[in-house]
Amino acid sequence: xxxxxxxxxxxxxxxxxxxxxxxxxxxxxxxxxxxxxxxxxxxxxxxxxxxxxxxxxxxxxxxxxxxxxxxxxxxxxxxxxxxxxxxxxxxxxxxxxxxxxxxxxxxxxxxxxxxxxxxxxxxxxxxxxxxxxxxxxxxxxxx
Amino acid sequence: xxxxxxxxxxxxxxxxxxxxxxxxxxxxxxxxxxxxxxxxxxxxxxxxxxxxxxxxxxxxxxxxxxxxxxxxxxxxxxxxxxxxxxxxxxxxxxxxxxxxxxxxxxxxxxxxxxxxxxxxxxxxxxxxxxx
Lengths: 143, 131
Hints:
By secondary structure, chain A is mainly alpha-helical. In chain A, 76% of the residues lie in helices and 0% in strands. Chain A has a single domain, classed as Four Helix Bundle (Hemerythrin (Met), subunit A), CATH 1.20.120. In chain A, helix 1 (2-40) runs antiparallel to helix 2 and helix 2 (49-67) runs antiparallel to helix 3 (77-95). Chain B is built from 2 helices and 5 strands, in the order αβββββα. Chain B has a 5-stranded antiparallel sheet, covered by helices on one side. Chain B is globular, with a radius of gyration of 19 Å. The interface between A and B is medium-sized, with 18 and 16 residues.
């Protein structure tokens, strides 16, 4: 009888530890998502193709790293998929403003901004929604 | 924009479309969605035409009793004309914010340039084939 109770208690403690670890991970994910969102605000008129590509590369890497552990999480899965789709759309937009002659990029200085601004704003919106869900889960795990 | 200015702008874009269709303007590709024409005769100017894809609200639907927006992709066009020289002056015609006819006509100019450039590329490729 005592051994069954001890087993149940140990299992409960293990679940609580796993949930606490998840809460910490979610909290750290939330901080990184805020940082990524701020990086995306670096898109301003006059941005060059290389600078836009560098921001995209950095954001892609960071997002894939923070989202990977939660890909199968039932509460985050569909929003993570939305972020991945928005990343692909942003990449396509970037390809559409690849300068034919990089040395003459200053001839049309706002071309990159006009061409990718909408797609990067949409990506930021999806990141914001993911951040909201992560924060909500983080609060629930701490209860 | 006042109506007479809009009509003047529509007429200008019409003239630009006509000249482009008649192959009088040597537009050059700047990137896959932007064309440039550097006007060499006075008044020297640079014209930049870009096609931009944007997300717009196209309607609404009811999901679980709540009205939600339905979005879709639409093309808009931006024409920037800049004079070259010490008193440089720039005008931007944004197809998203102007009269819808202007976006439509700028789109027709864009399509006309694209078709012309594709045709020239194909002619060039054909010339490289053995006779």
